[in-house]
From TrEMBL:
Name of the protein described by the UniProt record: Copper transport protein
GO MF annotation list: copper ion transmembrane transporter activity
Membrane topology, as annotated: Multi-pass membrane protein
Keywords: Copper, Copper transport, Ion transport, Membrane, Transmembrane, Transmembrane helix, Transport
Taxonomic lineage of the native organism: Eukaryota, Viridiplantae, Streptophyta, Embryophyta, Tracheophyta
Domain of life: Eukaryota
The keyword Aminoacyl-tRNA synthetase is annotated on this UniProt entry: no
Transmembrane segments: 24-44, 82-102, 108-127
PANTHER family in UniProt: COPPER TRANSPORT PROTEIN CTR1, SOLUTE CARRIER FAMILY 31 COPPER TRANSPORTERS
Protein localization: Membrane
Gene Ontology cellular component list: plasma membrane
């Protein structure tokens, strides 16, 4: 039976039918895996933002004398560099990890929920809490 409310217990099915926990050891190993997966999510997001920052700092300014973000074509105005592809690939990987974490939380097991949230917080603390000096503004226009 699939739970539709949060519950406490060691019996949980996480992501796949084959990933079932039925003992304390299996349950705590699964929680640890969810925790590590969440920390890895924050690490990958940090890598993506740093590559993007590097590519933005190396990108030439648009040739237009007036900054018109709504009229500037992103496809015609930029080179297709390796860093853009790397950022796109990392975005896809990070999106997949994020959806897996969301689906794991949708098992409605409170332990899994706590492991994911604590893993995200620890990963943020380890990898992204120094992002105050890293400011990326894709488009400064609020209407875009």
């Amino acid at each position: 039976m699939m739970h539709m409310t949060f519950y406490w217990g060691i019996r949980a099915t996480i992501l796949f039918d084959s990933w079932k926990t039925d003992s304390y050891l299996n349950y705590f190993l699964s929680l640890f895996a969810c925790f590590l997966f969440s920390v890895f999510y924050q690490y990958m997001e940090d890598r993506r933002l740093r590559i993007k920052q590097f590519s933005v700092s190396k990108a030439p300014e648009p040739s237009s004398s007036v900054n018109t973000p709504l009229l500037f074509s992103k496809f015609g105005g930029r080179n297709w560099s390796a860093s853009r592809f790397a950022v796109a690939i990392l975005f896809g990987i990070n999106s997949a990890i994020g959806y897996f974490l969301m689906l794991a939380v949708m098992s409605f097991n409170a332990g899994v929920f706590i492991a994911v949230v604590v893993g995200l917080a620890v990963g943020y603390l380890l990898f992204r809490s120094g992002d105050e000096e890293v400011v990326l503004v894709d488009n400064p226009c609020a209407c875009a």
